[in-house]
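Incident log, structure service

09:12 report received: a user says their structure output differs between two submissions of the same chain.
09:20 pulled the input from the user's history:
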Amino acid sequence: MTNTTLTVHHLGRSQSERIVWLCEELGLDYELKRYERRKDNMLAPPEYKALHPMGTAPIITDGPLVLGESGAIVDYLLATYGDGRLAVKRGQPGFADYLYWFHFANGTLQPVVLRVRYLERVDPSEKNAVLQAAKGQFNLVFSTVEKRLGEAPYLAGPELTAADIMTVFSLTTMRLFKPYDLSPWPNILAYLQRIGARPAYQRAMQKADPDITPLLRATP
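09:34 re-ran on a clean worker, output below:
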């Protein structure tokens, strides 16, 4: 299904890449507007912040609708234009897995990466007990993802879903801001190779951030 009123407002090197990827997987007709980060502080430029009261990526416009928040945008696009694709419905195998991993992405995975990043800025020493606890949680989170990807090729089961689209940013582009090594988690690395081989992902990343190579390897 096509919709020429749909515009994805993509802030470079941000989680709005998820929305570009989703549109490519669904084969939607959409307009992509790219915004570069400010040079002085790497934040969104004023024209991006003016799009939505929160001023954060991602943002879409669809006719008169202005919508933020990754999860809300993904749900909206799937419900409006998905025709049942990239989601698992109630009663289908993997429904609970789909729900869990879809919400795990922004509810657990991304916050733990950010927590370690911010705590390291305050005090990176081993004496920082809060940081050490956060690193322990980081390892637990990544070990949980690793275990799941040893059980199934994608987070909700045998096929790619929006749960994967929500997750991959934190395993790839986010490492430009918080570098970390994926070597301890070979199942995650194999998963990223499967993602990177997808034509829709390749198109999305080329359109969204043509100046960077997707971080699908162990080290940034």
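09:41 both user submissions now match this output. Likely a transient worker issue. Closing.
09:42 reviewer note: Strands lie at 6-11, 31-35, 59-62, 65-68. Helices lie at 17-26, 46-49, 70-81, 95-122, 129-151, 162-171, 186-196, 199-208.
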